């Protein structure tokens, strides 16, 4: 009894110390870790920059409907033999010539490619946003999985530490009974071997927990040297407390996923872009019509001769305007037009097949997630009953061992069975929480729950 009381007091002291440590440092919930991971993920940042480039492409497509204007100017200095522009006779004179020009052009018709390019840029922008959303969701889901794994190993460490404390207590009592002549040396040796096994198991679980925490920090892009405290309240929640009725029909969830899933939306947009590019390929065999015009002027003077008009007068007298309409008709382009059209048609068909394939895969994933969620809920509730039964069996076996009615091997087997049941309960409980969040995500809800 004294050892039991000592262990309880020690457990209260350790619990109080952990509470003080948790209050001194921030405890990170699952959603907080996912938010941090999304904000600091490099892939998400790259996708965000790609969205900005898509916006620039859209602006460029809009600018294709506007006229292009360019200005030009030139300065020419000639010395030695040169041609007189008035008489076309070679003279040994030095001349200065200055020219100016302003021109503009406007594409009137390019086989419909301008309109199709604008549509493509809009679809590409939506594609970039869907890719950004997919990167954010994948980062959040990977962080969620890493958080669940870290919680599992933290719970495993707690169970291993509890098992070791129980073995220490049993070893102490067995040694006391051996001193009183109630137990023999084989019993003490067997209990010591079990204690050593529990110490080894605790060390293994601690190493696995450290590895899981390192993986979580890497998923979050969190500084490895900094402390990260997890919210362990989920480990103590009873299955009935978070069990939710599962009345939705799988087809309803599938329909919601088909409408909201960013990966499928990307595939649909790729199909739309392929269709637009197929329509744009017609521009290779259709005529192109452009409107152009401009103004030009010049100034001329011999450097060692006077009597020339002033710059303003020459600029006004030499001022000229031009205006025109051009049309380019492809007659024979070495089959490139027909080939591009057929290639665009094939690309559209490929995009359609990929969309249907991804749609089928998504339906399978949704149904699988629903089955896993319901299955893990049933497993969790059954395992809670099994843990309760195994715990009772272990206490009875240990009590009988203390009374000399059981062998150390019986106690060891019952303890191992109880530990295995508790580990399975922990895994099924945490996996159920993960599947619940995944099903909610397929139903169109945000993967991150922001309070």
Would you write up a description of this structure?
Helix content is 67%, strand content 13%. The chain has helices at 2-24, 30-40, 42-63, 113-179, 185-220, 239-242, 250-260, 262-280, 311-317, 336-402, 408-442, and strands spanning 27-28, 68-78, 81-83, 90-92, 95-109, 229-230, 288-302, 320-328. The strands form three sheets. A four-stranded antiparallel beta sheet has the order 2-5-7-8, with helices on one face. It has a two-stranded parallel sheet with strand order 1-6. Strands 3-4 form a two-stranded antiparallel sheet. A hairpin with a 6-residue loop joins β3 (81-83) and β4 (90-92). It is elongated and about 135 Å long. The two termini are 47 Å apart. The model is unreliable at 1-24 (pLDDT under 50).
Provide the helix percentage: 55-70%
What is the chain-wise order of helices and strands? HEHHEEEEHHEHHHEHEHH
List low-pLDDT spans: 1-24
Largest sheet: 4 strands, antiparallel
Number of helices: 11
Q: In percent terms, what proportion of residues is strand?
A: 5-15%
Instruction: Give the averaged pLDDT, no decimals.
Output: 86
- Strand line-up across the major sheet: 2-5-7-8
What is the global morphology?
Answer: elongated
Determine Rg (CA atoms, Å).
40 Å
Q: Give the terminus-to-terminus CA distance.
A: 47 Å
Q: Decide which structural class fits the backbone.
A: alpha+beta
The count of strands amounts to: 8
């Amino acid at each position: 009894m004294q050892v039991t009381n000592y262990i309880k007091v020690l457990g209260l002291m350790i619990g109080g110390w952990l509470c003080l440590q948790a209050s001194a440092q921030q405890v990170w919930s699952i959603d907080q870790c996912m938010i941090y991971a999304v904000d600091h993920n490099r892939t998400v940042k790259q996708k965000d920059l790609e969205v900005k480039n898509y916006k620039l492409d859209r602006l460029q497509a809009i600018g294709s409907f506007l006229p292009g204007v360019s200005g030009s100017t030139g300065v020419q200095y000639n010395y030695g033999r040169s041609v007189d522009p008035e008489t076309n006779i070679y003279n040994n004179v030095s001349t200065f010539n200055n020219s100016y020009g302003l021109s503009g052009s406007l594409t009137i018709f390019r086989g419909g490619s301008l309109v199709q390019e604008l549509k493509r840029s809009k679809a590409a922008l939506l594609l970039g946003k869907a890719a950004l959303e997919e990167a954010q969701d994948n980062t959040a889901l990977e962080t969620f999985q890493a958080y669940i794994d870290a919680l599992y190993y933290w719970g495993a460490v707690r169970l291993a530490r509890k098992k070791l404390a129980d073995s220490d207590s049993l070893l102490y009592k067995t040694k006391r009974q051996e001193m009183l002549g109630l137990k023999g040396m084989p019993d003490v040796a067997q209990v010591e071997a079990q204690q050593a096994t529990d110490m080894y198991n605790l060390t293994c679980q601690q190493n696995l927990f450290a590895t899981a925490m390192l993986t979580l920090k890497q998923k979050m892009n969190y500084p490895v040297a900094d402390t990260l405290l997890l919210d362990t309240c989920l480990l103590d929640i009873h299955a009935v407390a978070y069990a939710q009725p599962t009345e939705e029909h799988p087809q309803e969830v599938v329909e919601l996923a088909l409408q909201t899933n960013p990966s499928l939306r990307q595939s649909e947009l790729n199909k739309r872009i392929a269709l637009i590019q197929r329509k744009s390929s017609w521009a290779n065999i259709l005529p192109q019509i452009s409107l152009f015009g401009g103004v030009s002027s010049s100034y001329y003077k011999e450097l060692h001769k006077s009597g020339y008009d002033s710059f303003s007068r020459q600029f006004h007298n030499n001022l000229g305007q031009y205006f025109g309409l051009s049309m380019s008709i492809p007659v024979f382009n070495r089959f490139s037009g027909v080939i591009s059209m057929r290639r665009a048609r094939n690309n559209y068909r490929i995009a359609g097949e990929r969309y249907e394939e991804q749609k089928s895969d998504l339906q399978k994933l949704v149904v699988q997630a629903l089955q896993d969620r319901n299955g893990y809920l049933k497993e969790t509730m059954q395992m809670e009953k099994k843990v309760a039964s195994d715990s009772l069996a272990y206490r009875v076996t240990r009590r009988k061992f203390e009374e000399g009615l059981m062998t150390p091997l019986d106690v060891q087997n019952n303890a191992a069975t109880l530990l295995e049941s508790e580990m399975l309960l922990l895994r099924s409980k945490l996996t159920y929480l993960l599947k619940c969040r995944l099903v909610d995500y397929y139903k169109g809800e945000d993967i991150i729950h922001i309070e």
